[in-house]
Amino acid sequence: MIMLDVKNLNKKFPHFQLSDVSFQLPQGYIMGFIGLNGAGKTTTIKSILNLITVDSGEISIMGKNMNEHEVELKQVVGYAFGNVDFYTRSKIKTLTKVFKTFYDNWNDEAYRHYIQKFKLIEDKKIAELSTGMKVKYSLALALSHGAKLLILDEPTSGLDPAARDDLLDVFRELVQDGEISILFSTHITSDLEKCADYITYIHEGHLINSAEKEEFVDKYRLINGKVEDLEPIKDRMISYKVTSFGFTGLILAENFTPSPAFKSAIPNLEEIMIYYSKKEAAHV
Amino acid sequence: MYNLLLKEVRLGVNPFFFVLPLITGALMLVPGWLYFIVPLYFCMITIPNIFGGYKSQNDLMFTSMLPVNKKNVVQAKVLLIVLLEVLHVVTAMIYGKISLSLYPHLHYIFFKPTPGFWGLTLVMLALFNLFFISMYFKTAYKYGAATLVASTVAVLFAVEAEWLGIQNQFVSDLFKGSGSTDGLTHYSILFTGVLIFAAFTFIAYRIAYQRFKKVEV
Fold first, then answer.
1. What is the ipTM of this complex?
2. Residue A202 is inside which H or E element, if any?
3. Mean pLDDT of the region A188-212
4. Minimal Cα distance from B2: which residue of A?
5. In 3-state terms, what secondary structure has residue A45?
6. Per its UniProt entry, which superkingdom is the organism in (chain B) (predicted)?
7. Which of A1, A189, B11, B37 has the smallest set of CB atoms within 10 Å of its CB?
8. How many Å lie between the alpha carbon of B49 and the closest alpha carbon of chain A?
9. Do B62 and A72 touch (CB under 8 A)?
10. Residue B160: which residues within 8 A CB-CB, separation 6 or more?
11. pLDDT in tens, B49-96
């Protein structure tokens, strides 16, 4: 089943535009939603949650249109925003007491389980929690109301490597039984190398690609060569940089014909992002 | 809707603002004071503090993520304002009664706390609601301009009313002189005040909801 279906999303702001963004997240998988700062990740997430009105396009969760079934669908959507805090002066137990009244399928037993599992102390105020603990608290809330789709906006930003790794393990564990799906936006691509099944890459409000992770990177080649061999290939490359040792550039695999003049390799997500941002800079 | 109201009470409003009416209401015991100021404390202290809290705690984002519709979000906030206003007015009325019995022969320059005066107070709060609620929900987080405009309108109403009470013999008699014991007239004014308060608040809610539908978080 398709858990989240985003179709032809368009939204125009005075200085930014989200253009024709479409992707699908199947049930039971983690999708990494990547892009540089300001690429439109949060705008897309806000559109999914109906926090902003899109100019055109359609969002469906579990096959139901978000616009028509917003209240019902929000019962099965959990969220964690890495950079936004709510009611930080309230204690965990106070916030939970209020939060649970909004959900039909709230499960106190599940809540106790996750509070213990994540080592959360209910008497602590939200402001006293570390960034990682705040994300875990959001997850505990989401999982206790039976969320099937978790939307996490930059949940690992600002975390130390150990806390990040810990959180990624939690994400992997959550999708294991195939019921829960996670859309996980980040610009820290190494997190996704570890845990994502699908990658959706957005750049300057445009969708570059959305595919299964291996398929996603396999679409590109990172090539090295001597500067004198650059000329015949440079127009086909997404972007490149020249150093005293030669050039390195990113090219779509379909535009690349292997030749002894070039060394090629499959790039990682970070390299793809970097070369796409260079393409933009070259056009400025 | 009940859970949203509960959310406002448990998370959004510091308990101090439920106690404040007891403190500001006690100012009714100052003999012959300008009693319109008492409910104005609600407009100038309670409102900006509560709505400033909403802004700093990202209430708009928090509420928008919950499985609730926008209509109920507006209703809960309007109901909270009305609840606190009623608390302020009723407490001040009780103190007003005590004040009247403490100083039975006082010569009033400003309005005497009669039932009619409370009717005028409700009209003042009705004007405050009309401006504050409708302006606030344009963004659902900017409360400064809305508080300023709504409070100014409320103050202007109070100044006008007091001015009329000093300048006009009929109004002066009705609120401070022999007419101040005319129960039928005074309760009619109070009843009219209640109706105006309800009508203006309802209109404010309708405008606020239409505006809030277009708010982007």
1. 0.84
2. strand A198-203
3. 90
4. A101
5. helix
6. Bacteria
7. A1
8. 15
9. no
10. none
11. 999 999 999 999 999 999 999 999 999 999 999 999 999 999 999 999
